[in-house]
Design a protein that fits this description.
Number of domains: 2
Structural class: alpha/beta
Shape: globular
CATH topology of the largest domain: D-Maltodextrin-Binding Protein, domain 2
Radius of gyration: 23 Å
CATH superfamily of the largest domain: Periplasmic binding protein-like II
Number of helices: 17
Largest sheet: 5 strands, mixed
Strand content: 5-15%
Helix content: 25-40%
CATH class of the largest domain: Alpha Beta
Oligomer: single chain
Number of strands: 13
Distance between the termini: 42 Å
CATH architecture of the largest domain: 3-Layer(aba) Sandwich
Length: 500
């Protein structure tokens, strides 16, 4: 009975493709009346080389599959709703995916949404906690804020996804780097992958102005990236080539031109670019503190020296004096006020109507010896997927979740990545190649997610204060960080029935 689901799935996909009946059109036929999608190329689904393994005759007799979308999702994007503003093609794909799963399993998919700040006790954590205390399950799958996810795992509210029937985290529709970075004690309580668009929107990147680069005779940015020579030294060199007091008032502010528009999160993103973490998982499966090293000390010194230099760097969070900084950053870049712009992919659609020509590149490596790029996922704005420990029916939840993840790779990811991001928002082939690098190099930092030593908050405050206090922050926080790590490892061992 295994693997024969592939035949049913292919039949369903073919039927949908040729159907002229009612309902929303498939993602391959966007409505020509929608001005946001008319220029997007139509792309076929990727050639399928693997399928979920489950029986073909799974009829769940009208089962209501309830999905919780919580956390502070970037731009309020909902992975399971088809009404996300500015994402017409993606909305069609989400609707199509959900409909196919409903038809395949004879079930209905219900979406419960509560989006709010999630710092470890957000709406996702609270709802899963309440269900755990009551010994029941209100949801089949939960998308919770990334700071909430470790807390639901640590407190025993989440099911080990490795043990869920039909869910196979080794398959291509699940994030394989997440398998490496988030697995503690051999357990995977939360993850991400093609099932989520939010994690793409919350991924950090650097934009650059092609006109300013040309003006400064900077012509090799893409070549440097391709040849793995895009380092922080080179980034700093180019940033320091641009500083113009455009209005001649002897002060550098939002009316002038800088080498880089930056924000407080750029430090964490730069550390990730150097493939450094606050904490990771050791060979024994336990969390270990990895923040302090000579490399990280040198990198933080270089980053802060550059970003604290107000002649070349404009921190659009700290220096915005009127209105919301979120409303100022993209217009400043579009108005030619900086060579580089450190941001997330959620910003890219804001430049859609701009006439400026820009490129997208990854964060630089620390040095060429590093060999591979690193990428950063903003924990504040992203979500992780988990299943409640008292889930009502493991087989139903596992089968539907795995099929949703698989069809997300086949339908939703192409709609976002190929048709929307590459086809609509990105303006050159070189940037498209860089997108592949950025998303493939993304890493996950348990030190951030568990707020170990509160190092993340302290580093953010350090950026706000424009004072490099990295070594002191580590030295004064090391003891509490190690105590917290020991507590976490002990708690997981107890949860897993292991010896302390």
């Amino acid at each position: 009975m295994k693997r024969t689901v592939a035949l049913l799935l292919l039949a369903t996909m073919l039927l949908t493709a040729v159907s002229c009946g009612g309902g929303k059109p498939a993602v391959t036929t966007p409505a020509v009346t929608d001005p946001t999608v008319t220029d997007a190329p139509v792309t076929d689904s990727p050639v399928t080389t693997e399928y979920p393994e489950m029986p073909e005759d799974m009829d769940f007799d009208g089962y209501e599959f309830v999905m919780l979308m919580s956390g502070l999702s970037v731009n309020d994007f909902n992975d399971f709703a088809s009404d996300n503003a500015g994402f017409a093609v993606v909305n069609e794909a989400i609707f199509d995916r959900n409909s196919r799963v409903e038809d395949m399993f004879k079930c209905t998919i219900t979406n419960v949404k509560e989006l709010a700040a999630s710092w470890g006790n957000g709406p996702g954590f609270k709802r899963m906690r309440d269900d755990y205390v009551a010994g029941e399950s209100s949801y089949d799958i939960c998308a919770v804020g990334t700071f909430d996810a470790p807390q639901v795992a640590l407190n025993g509210y989440a099911y080990d996804l490795n043990e869920m029937p039909y869910i196979d985290l080794t398959r291509g529709w699940w994030d394989q780097q997440a398998n490496k970075d988030l697995c503690v004690g051999g357990k995977m309580y939360y993850t991400t992958g093609d099932i989520s668009v939010v994690d793409n929107l919350a991924t950090h990147c650097i934009l650059f102005s092609k006109s300013i680069a040309e003006e400064k005779q900077i012509t090799d940015i893409y070549e440097l990236v391709e040849n793995k020579k895009w380092t922080y030294d080179k980034f700093e060199e180019y940033v320091r080539m641009v500083s113009n007091n455009l209005n001649g008032d002897d002060k550098m502010d939002e009316n002038d031109r800088f080498g880089v528009l930056s924000w407080n999160d750029a430090l964490q993103a730069s550390l990730a670019g150097a493939k450094s973490k606050i904490a990771g998982v050791g060979e024994d499966g336990k969390i270990v503190l990895t923040m302090y090293s000579e490399k990280n000390i040198a990198l933080v010194e270089q980053v802060t020296d550059l970003l604290f230099d107000t002649d070349y760097s404009y921190n659009y969070v700290n220096r915005t004096t009127s209105g919301r900084w979120q409303d100022k950053m993209a217009p400043m870049f579009a108005d030619g006020k900086a060579l580089f712009f450190t941001t997330m992919f959620s910003t890219v659609p804001l430049l859609r109507d701009s006439t400026m020509d820009f490129g997208i590149i990854p964060y630089p490596m620390f040095n060429e010896e590093q060999g591979e790029y690193g990428g950063y996922l903003a924990a504040t704005y992203s979500v992780m997927y988990c299943v409640e420990s008292f889930v009502e029916d493991e087989e139903i939840t596992g089968a539907i979740t795995e099929m949703l993840a698989y069809l997300s790779r086949e339908i939703v990811t192409p709609a976002y990545y190929e048709q929307t991001l590459k086809g609509r928002d990105v303006r050159d082939d070189e940037s498209k190649a860089c997108l592949d690098i950025i998303f493939a190099s993304r890493t996950f930092d348990l030190g951030i997610y568990y707020t170990i030593g509160d190092f993340t908050g302290k580093l953010t405050n350090m950026m706000k204060a424009s004072k490099n206090d990295f070594v002191n922050i580590y030295e004064t926080g090391k003891r509490s960080a190690e105590v917290k790590i020991k507590t976490i490892n002990t708690q997981f061992a107890e949860n897993n029935g292991e010896e302390k």
